[in-house]
């Protein structure tokens, strides 16, 4: 009998867990992770997340946990400064569940379903043994990675420095926008605010996510260390820059969901070819370890999920053939068009908006069809790419 091939997935985040769910019935899967599910559940928030329609469909296909327990997000609200432009409707609802809850639940479920888990923070000295022990290693170590030297694709990696500071807090005491959806407020020259209703283990909350252009006025959380300082600074910032959010804040109830539900970081986007050799074997990358974009377009989880599905399909095609360079090339060919479109759109969103996009946003105010089309950018980033880079826009 042909023994099942052994796959090591390093990382138990968005990409690693979806891959483990997808691959568990066809291969012997081991997830190697830095933190226990308990530690993730009770640790600091890691991100924000909105899983749009196609991602939710993949999660259903692979029987992943519980996205639909959260309230459906049906719309995207777009404002420029304090002017509300429009509410665009999403064709399919999106869902946002705190990754602490989602990852820990996924790990617990998979462990009961024949997936092995090994808690190790993988470092260089572990790589030889990993390569020896498994038929293939997939690096899903996220933005902390990569663990292998996947070559950088220079044409998709134009920035050497972060284009935004990410300032995230999960808050109680904000009346949700209506209809429930993701709020995007653009402050030209300063940055953006994303307002995202989400589910946590303490119930529904609202994420306030500032993306500040470094060293401009919105980059005003320097030196903020404690949860109290963070809450106060967020309230002051909403008051000064985001009046329509400030109006919905209940000043007595406005608190962080818990003392670890805030985060500040900055990402230097970089795109890498997701396969390389290590000693005598091919290694693969999936998710942020190889496709690291700025979070401004909210595509990181969706792109990770897309690429995880393509990698799953490629590995199934190669189930009975040799795992060589050709497998890596086929996987890269399958994901490259989407990676390029998401990356180019995301990079463009961090820069000054082109005039035809400003015009399109403004026309969303008087045309619901245009408003809906813009909302769909986030669910179907190929459409955003077309609108940004093909000048004759069909409305
Ligand atoms: C502030 C912020 C906001 C964001 N908002 C959104 C959003 O709204 N929508 C969206 O779609 N995306 C968003 N993203 C991006 C999204 O979170 C990531 O793209 C997505 O989680 C990537 O999945 P991943 O599996 O590659 O990495 P992760 O989910 O980060 O998982 C990486 C895993 O690898 C583990 N790991 C790392 N190093 C090692 C090691 N050496 N050994 C063992 N394990 C290791 C980590 O502990 C973790 O479990 C945001 C990101 C940030 C930073």
Automatic annotation (TrEMBL):
The cross-references to InterPro entries, in alphabetical order and at most eight, read:
FAD/NAD-bd_sf, StyA_sbd
Please give one Pfam family short name. Smoa_sbd
Q: Which UniProt keywords apply?
A: Monooxygenase, Oxidoreductase
In this entry, which stretches build a coiled coil?
none
In its keyword annotation, does this UniProt entry include Oxidoreductase? yes
Where would I find the Styrene monooxygenase StyA putative substrate binding domain in this sequence? 142-248
GO molecular-function terms, A-Z: monooxygenase activity
Could you confirm whether the keyword tRNA processing appears in this record?
no
Question: Which interval of the chain is the signal sequence?
Answer: none
Which Gene3D superfamilies does its entry note? FAD/NAD(P)-binding domain
Task: From the Swiss-Prot or TrEMBL record, give the protein name.
Answer: Styrene monooxygenase
């Amino acid at each position: 009998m042909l023994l099942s091939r052994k796959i090591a997935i390093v990382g138990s985040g968005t990409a690693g867990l979806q891959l483990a769910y997808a691959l568990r019935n066809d291969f012997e899967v081991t997830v190697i992770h830095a933190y226990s599910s308990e530690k993730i559940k009770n640790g600091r928030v890691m991100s924000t997340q909105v899983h749009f329609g196609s991602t939710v469909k993949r999660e259903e296909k692979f029987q992943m946990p519980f996205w639909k327990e959260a309230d459906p997000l049906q719309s995207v609200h777009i404002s420029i400064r304090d002017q509300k432009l429009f509410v665009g409707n999403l064709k399919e609802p999106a869902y946002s569940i705190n990754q602490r809850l989602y990852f820990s639940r996924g790990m617990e479920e998979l462990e009961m379903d024949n997936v092995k888990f090994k808690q190790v923070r993988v470092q260089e000295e572990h790589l030889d043994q990993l390569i020896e022990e498994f038929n293939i290693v997939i690096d899903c170590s996220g933005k902390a990675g990569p663990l292998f030297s996947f070559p950088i694709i220079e044409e998709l990696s134009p920035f050497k420095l972060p284009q935004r500071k990410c300032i995230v807090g999960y808050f109680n005491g904000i009346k949700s926008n209506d209809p429930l959806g993701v709020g995007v407020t653009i402050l030209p020259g300063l940055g953006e605010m994303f307002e995202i209703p989400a589910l946590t283990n303490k119930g529904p909350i609202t994420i306030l996510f500032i993306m500040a252009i470094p060293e401009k006025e919105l980059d005003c959380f320097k030196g903020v260390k404690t949860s109290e300082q963070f809450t106060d600074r967020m309230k002051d910032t909403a008051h000064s820059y985001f009046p329509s959010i400030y109006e919905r804040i209940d000043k007595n109830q406005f608190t962080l969901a818990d003392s670890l539900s805030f985060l500040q970081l900055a990402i230097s986007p970089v795109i890498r070819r997701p396969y390389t050799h290590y000693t005598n074997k091919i290694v693969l990358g999936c998710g942020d370890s190889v496709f690291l974009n700025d979070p401004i377009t909210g595509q990181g989880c969706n792109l990770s999920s897309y690429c995880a599905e393509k990698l799953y399909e490629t590995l199934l095609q190669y189930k009975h053939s040799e795992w060589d360079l050709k497998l890596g090339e086929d996987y890269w060919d399958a994901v490259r068009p989407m990676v390029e479109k998401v990356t180019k759109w995301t990079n463009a969103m961090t820069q000054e908006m082109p005039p035809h996009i400003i015009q399109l946003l403004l026309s969303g105010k008087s045309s619901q069809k245009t408003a809906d089309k813009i909302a769909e950018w986030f669910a179907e980033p190929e459409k955003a790419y077309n609108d940004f880079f093909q000048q004759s826009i069909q409305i």
